[in-house]
## 1
Amino acid sequence: MENQEITNIKLLITIGIFSTLFIAAVVILFVVYYQRKMLLKDASIKLMEQEKQLELFKATVAAEEQQKEKIARNLHDEINPLLNVLKYNLAKYRIRARKNTFDPESLITDEETLIKVMEGIRTTCLDLIPSFLLQNGLIPSLEEYINNVQKIGELNAEFESDTAPEKVEQFSTQEQLNIYRICLEILNNIFKHSRCTFFKMIVKTSESDLTINCIHNGKGVTNEEIENYTNASLGLGLKSLKARTLLLKASINYSKNINTSSVELIIPFKQ
Amino acid sequence: MNKDIFIQIISWASAIGTSIPLFLGVFRYRYLQNPLKWIVLLFGIGSLTELLSLIYATSINPNNVWIFNSYQILETTIIIIFYSMLTQVKLKKRLLYLFIILFTIVSVYQISNIGSARLNDLSFSIESIIVVLLTILNFHSILKKQVYTNILNAPIFWINSGFLIFYCGNLFLHIFSQYLQAHAINAFFELWVFHSIFNIILYILISIGFWKTKKSQI
């Protein structure tokens, strides 16, 4: 074989070796690069999730603070003045009793004041934990609420349920309270923003979950819209709603149509 | 430096270098997971083969190629077993065991055809293709599972990289080696230095792999 031919073959083999080696190096570098890229992506997703959770936690804490503020305001602005009046009256009666000019009939007004104080305290307590819910359970409480809405007469409200109470008893009192508050928040949003004239709540259960469907003829929203409102909103209602939904591992589906829109809350039973 | 001296140094480094990953493998043996123990065995057999071939060449017959041809079958078997232990899929494991049987049959047949004095390049080319495919599949599995926080700390990454570079680099050399041995033996010896260089790269990467081994990590 000629020298030139040998040199050509050697060159060809050397190029071949370096080409395959280059491909191997590219594969290895790609593995390192891709793995790092995926890790960074995972880390950023986790960070975003943590931020979201933190925001929800903050919203829950803020909602609780707001509730406490409301209770404090009730006690300070409504109960306290009434108690002051009673205290003033008692001092007045003590002086009159000493002078033997005390008229027991004057206690009637104070009795009324005392009833007002008791009413005020009861309302505040109801804000903390609805006693009707504790006594009668979730479904009758929701029915009672819808009946009250109907009695006001501004809109036509209906309630329908095929759910046995023992099914709902699978949820703890705290969970039932959370479901109740979610429903109240959903209803509050519907009444406030949808301008509906008809409303119907349907409660159903299956083997795996409890479904509460709120159908109305007002202006509806979609899941995307509600997500945007939740993220953009400065108010606590939607964020607190989301936090409670997460606690229950529940889901809420919003849908809107021309004639009827609905909000469907699905809460899974504990397995 | 004279070209011949350079080739001699590289050849010796390649022959002696096999003891480095072996030493590290033995040193870290108790931390090694079962698949990595097979790689230690591979380098143990590799070192013994180098020693045996040297003794054979100096005292019995300078042509010691049959030893390397026999070692190659063992080498392929161990590498395939190593990769079969990394997969959890039974079908893949069975397929890999089938490869071992087929490869052994082809290699024995080829050796009986070409005789004991020539390198079994066909088998080496087949081995290269199999191992390159296995390394790529293993990299794919690593990327899919995403179990490592830093892949550079994973022993399997370094071992895989070592095999990929070694077999990719040597593939072209072995495809043409039979032709070169027949027509230009000097050119063959000159180009064979690449084989020794890839051997050294393999030893370095495998050694890093063993060095990176910690408790319960592959």
Note: Chain B has a mean pLDDT of 86.
## 2
Amino acid sequence: MPKTLSIVIPVKDGEERLEEVLAAVASQGPHELIVIDSGSRDRSREIARAGGAELIEIAPEEFGHGRTRNLGAERSSGDLICFLTQDAIPVNGWLDAYREAFTLDERAGAAFGPHLPHPDTSPMISRDLTEFFKGFAPDGRPVLQRRGDPTFLSNVNACYARDCWAELRFPEVAYSEDQAFGSAMLEAGWVKVFHPGAAVRHAHDYGPLDFSRRYFDEYRGLRETTGHVEPLLAKKAARELVQDARWMREQGMSSGTRARWLPRAAAHQAGRRVGSALGARAARLPDRLQRKLSLEGRGAGGSGRAVRGSRGRSPYEEILQLYAKGPAPLEEPVEGMAERTPLHIAVVIPPFGKGSGGHMTIVTLIDRLERAGHTCSIWIYDPRGKHLRQNAAVLRRRVVDDFVPVRAPVYKGFDDWHGADVAVATGWDTVYPVMLLPHLRARAYLINDHEPEFFPTSADSLWAAHTYELGLYGIAAGRWLRDLLEQRYGQRGGWFRLGVDHEIYRPGPEERRRDTVIFYARGFTARRAVPLGEIALQELQRRRPGLRVVLFGQEDQLGLPFDHEHLGVVEPEVLARRYRQTSAGLCLSLTNYSLIPQEMLACGLPCVDVAGGSTEAELGRDGGVELADPDPIAIADALERLLEDRDLWERRSTSGLAQVEEASWDEAGRQVEHHLREALRERGS
Amino acid sequence: MTAEVEQLRARVEELERELAERSAKAEAAVAAAQQRSYWADRLPFDLNAVMPTRAGRVVYLVLLGTVRALQALKRRLL
């Protein structure tokens, strides 16, 4: 049974030749004729209707070379789908040639035919077209092209088997969707047919400048779809010019006519070389320049531009891997593994900076685990390359110098991963690599804070929240955080109390200076509500002009509108001495409580924090912390109470000391050790 | 049967102990190596790239000798 053939012609402002095209098509008896108009402002639609075509109208912004042709193919019903442009006029026998082409091989997926020049086409274009297409079939017979053969295919005049189109479809690229299809179909094992009889009259005869711009578009499209980079070869332009002269002679043109055409031919060939070389490198050009160089007026935006990937490692690699492949399986449990000493504990930490309280907690706990006889190793997960230029030995020294002298080695990344009894994630983003680590008996999660609150609504906040649902045994800093994780995420686990180093943070003989407030102002840690503390202190200083304010927690100055002393990040001993010389502390936390209020209390220094949060849950209302609503006046009032009311100050100071007396890192270490064993026990049960 | 199970348990126990000892030694060795190589690793260039060439070795050793001599001089004078 002969194959039915649908013709699809995308049109926009194509009245010049459309009537002629439709008449030539209709005379060859197609099964179906579809015109897709994308916002013509001329008579194209009327011509299409009058020519007996089914008219599909789309908005101009919906047009895409690939997208619109896919639409045409979807809306057509023929076994073969033939695409023409609005200015390609089929010659006699065109449709029969296509029918024949698809009988030449059962895997024939597409066919194309030559573009013949119009009688008035310039000699350069005429030669170009004629010689180009003659190259496909020098003996004038149809040619089958398979994988490895030229991939050229042009939707000016091409025909597709529906099966082949349906398998591959046109890519939605700005240009050269046909070239991309030609390449893909041969790769997929389809056969492409060039049939010299399936010819159309079609030539774009622009002036040299417009021709150059057209080549810019064409080679930009080629680069985007096939990656082809056209070199700028002056010699090639000269060779083409010689060929043009030869062609003109062979066509019997007089010497006068030839002399008239040759300068234009020279400009044409030079413009062509420049346009195609620039088009192939368009991605490097600014958008405005691309628009100027493009005949279509297309810049880098709009239809999109090809952007080379960085080829670097994505910082989200492990997240993708976990979602795609799931966690690495844990080792089979071994009897009694939870009770042994030493345990081999691998602690995975995020990149760090001096003064990070979270890292201080982690490294102090590692120290206590080592003192309990366990073997620890520290693994830095640094997907954004914060420590790119520092190798493991240097990072280890920083851990030892900036935090606590531990015995553990430090590894950067997981290239040397060699397994452990338990891997401990310590920040939300470290959870993902920990889930992928093999040769483990259990995984645990040391949780210093409720990290989704560190981010605005974002992928980060989602992924951070998800870490509590991945089945790791959670070890939370404090009961408040433990309850939150259990209630909100159903995470199982335990908690530990943040410790205090009583060797450093203790009452001392220093004399306290009246009217002095020390403020933890780590401005880049948003949850520390530094702006709130800042305006509270501004208010307090307005009330008490002699007030002395001391800031610590970050090296950069905050640029506050009132006089103050900026300590920066200081050694714990220095900080403890300053706590002992001060009359009130200000340390705000909008999420979990931290080391600082406890350390202030251990120095006999009462402090102010916001009510209703974790500090209140952990340290109560009657202890060393004066609680205030999170508004600047209430905080200023609370600080003023501590500065004014001697009895209140004494009461808070004494009960604060009593509160933290029991808080020690030895105890915190024991609690964490217990929970790590619990994580292993769970595996064994 | 019970004896065999007990024997296997004891063997597992022994292997576990060995593994723990080896892990402890390996981690301690890495930490010690990191401790020793700290100054070399802090240099703003890669010693592994410099030392294989004769010129690199000479320049490095001359520089090292100079630094050491200056340090010794400083100790003597101060």
Note: Residues 45-78 of chain B form one domain.
